[in-house]
What does this fold into?
Amino acid sequence: MKPHFILFVLGLALIIGLPKTVLFFTRRPKLKGTAAFTGGVVLILLRWPLVGFLVELYGIFILFGDFFATMGSFAGNIPVIGPYLQMALNRASQASGGQRNAELPV
It folds into this structure.
């Protein structure tokens, strides 16, 4: 098993708790992202690292796309580059549905 995958899931479980972590990954809108992320890990283990990484990246975008608007609001406070980061993250949030964390289990 890849260390980054294990550390990611364990870190999330430690931060929000095991029941909420399971709820987060098994919610109906997040199943596609969970499958893509897990499939990416499997592809990496099967020695397809580039394809596996891209599939993992897609899964992360699906799983955590609704966080982009929140990150954009914080990134807007960075001097000089803040407005540009905020604009890019808000566009990414709109592309992923832009729900602004309305249905998060946390």
